[in-house]
Fold these 2 entries.
Entry 1:
Amino acid sequence: MTKIIVIGAGVLGASAAYRLAQAGAKVTVLEAGRAGGGTSGTSFAWTNSHRKRPFAYHALNVAGMAAHAALKDEFGATPWWHGGGSIEWVAAEEIEALRDNVAQLQAWNYRAEWISKSDLAALEPEIDPATVGDSPIGYFPDEGWLDPVPYAHAMLSAARGLFGATLVLGARVADLLTRGGRVCGVTLADGTVHEADMVVNCAGRLSNTAIRDTALHVPLAPTVGLLVFTPPVATGLRHVVHSSVVNGRPDGAGRLMLHWEQIDPTVPADAVASPDLAQAREIMDRARRLLPAIGDVRAEAVRIGIRPIPRDGLTAVGPLPRVDGYYVAVTHSGVTMSPFLGAAVADEVMLGRVRPELAEFRPARFFN
Ligand SMILES: Cc1cc2nc3c(=O)[nH]c(=O)nc-3n(C[C@H](O)[C@H](O)[C@H](O)COP(=O)(O)OP(=O)(O)OC[C@H]3O[C@@H](n4cnc5c(N)ncnc54)[C@H](O)[C@@H]3O)c2cc1C
């Protein structure tokens, strides 16, 4: 039986572990902290393919959206995934870009429509229509959002319960183990050795810290993102909404998750995640403009996430040149793509089927 180690139990590692175990591998997932406790636990988690260019990258995201929807047939119910579409309107200076995006999506046969203000009122009765101004309103029916931690948990539970995978928590990988020029396992920070035929690195933004040899590091350009959470409020959103003042979506039990991309660059990566941050207060003020009925409610929680972005902004999935037995999967938009990438990783690693969809996304592009 082929023994495979997956490093990391975020959405990507959990998806890969499930599909690899289903394909017949003896899978061990080594997770330094808790499942879903990395970037996957601090994600806006909108499943979409907006402004994902070039076309091959757009197609990967669309494949991820389709894979999320298809899991319903496999699992019977997918309570971690919420469809219903997303809605977008913008400030005056961004109207041109919104029109361009919708035109591009339509040209690629992605469902993107214009809706009226009364349609918007029917979809989201509690938002203040004054925030729309003169912007057209886009509606994207196939989009939604994920609860990434319950999703990772479901994939790991299925991998373990159905296919005998093992999850080891508190297992920080410190280096690859090689024999005769081939990777044959990993060494943990506490010195424990785990042997395997293949190692799949899904450690996200920390993927390079799991390997000492810098010649095997995929160059990353991570960015910081700030998410603000309300307590349960007796008003709310029903969809993922990108508006001219703030972006938001439901986050369970009446809570809202809020984000404003323009604020992200002002947040230091080591900032203490507190509702008292000036940036969190500004996001709450913006949310009151979108949803006046939330009144003077204060933020309940703030999370700061680091996006695992390969240097050129695109996905990096595949083996590395000059080393056998080692495979990497690191990407932004991993929430959207993870069920597709998990299946693609299993096809390539276990079944020897090279996936053409990944041709433009090989880590080899970073190495001469
Ligand atoms: C603010 C924000 C908003 C986002 N919005 C979206 C969005 O709307 N849509 C979307 O699709 N994507 C979005 N993303 C990106 C998405 O969240 C990530 O691409 C995805 O979560 C990456 O998952 P992962 O499994 O690769 O990494 P992670 O979730 O970080 O998982 C990696 C795991 O590896 C573990 N690990 C690290 N080092 C080691 C080691 N040495 N040994 C063992 N384990 C280790 C970590 O503990 C962690 O659990 C957003 C990200 C942020 C920060």
Entry 2:
Amino acid sequence: MEFSKRLGKLAPYPFVEISRIIAEKKAAGADVVTFGIGDPDIPTPDPIIERLLSASKHEPNHRYPETDGLPEFRKAIADWYKGRFDVQLNPDTEVLPLIGAKEGIGHAAFCFLDPGDIALIPDPAYPVYGVGTMFAGAESYTMPLTEANNWLPDYSAIPTNVADKAKIMWLNYPNNPTSAIATEDDFKEAISFCKKHNIALLHDAAYSEVGYEGYKPLSFMEIPGAKEVGIEFHSLSKTYNMTGWRSGMAVGNAEMIKALFQIKANLDSGIPQAVQEMSMQALLDDQTCVQTNIDIYQARRDRVITALTRMGLEVAVPKASLYIWAHIPDGFTSADFAARLLADNDIVVTPGSSYGEYGEGYIRLSLTTPDEQVEKGCIRLENWKIPAP
Ligand SMILES: Cc1ncc(COP(=O)(O)O)c(C=O)c1O
């Protein structure tokens, strides 16, 4: 049997590998504390689950869903965008439900990229932007994100011939893994660069609802001109503790939304309707659960920052997202440092290098771990004498 060349180009998906190591450790009796994947430990709020239970008994929901979802769900998404960001969207042409943002992000590459085309991809980044590009036979041109540039791309460093050839650019703020945020001016700069070079701008806003100390992250759709050049990917996963239910959306430029619909209509059959109903419940219900989550993550954030600082690591206090991005001591690779944390302390973190070469020198800690586990992990970190590299 012969498999495709693209399959051979895939590195193991970081969290599949981490899950395997955790399972192995646990089987050997270790008390593992994981700051690995960003997967909320807090349950989906009751009213959302109640809606799923009742929707599951509704027989029309037992049949194939439409690729573009229930009209009421698209309207709920548009209403949520209006309420949260004051962004007006046409639910029938500017909104497309997704089976989680990851699905849409992966499929989006097929809308824009042919073999040999260029996609501008940040590094470090959520791996799916680059993998989708590779699946479409296109090339990733790396936009390094550096601490010196506040983890934003330096557009002036992109050669004009690359910018002119590029078809799409991916951005993601609040950012995974660095936790960086983008200001209105940052988005304006990205939009004007993309307009100048006729590039489609794909913004991933999966963490827009996790902002600390009252900070409300922006939607790129709030910025004038956004709809002319781009779409935004969003997700119910992190906002409503719904990673397990697979629900998200793309919104914005109608032509781009239509293109993504065409690709999806040929590859998937939409979100189960009962899940669409629970998603409507999440988006339209009272939003107190969102702040409840933020308060929990903020307390964990402060505890983890204290522990890392006591260890002597350099770490910025994130304004948003579920992650702490910490600089590791010189002499270690991020993979080595993560391996030492696991071997010496039974603590799982993600090496920065999993997100690209510019993630080297950092580790990422996710705050989606129950409080008592966070405390246990922090005590272990504080008591750890970092060995020589
Ligand atoms: C930046 C980013 N985008 C998208 C996703 C995927 O979201 P979903 O669960 O909606 O597929 C993640 C998940 O971790 C993410 O970190």
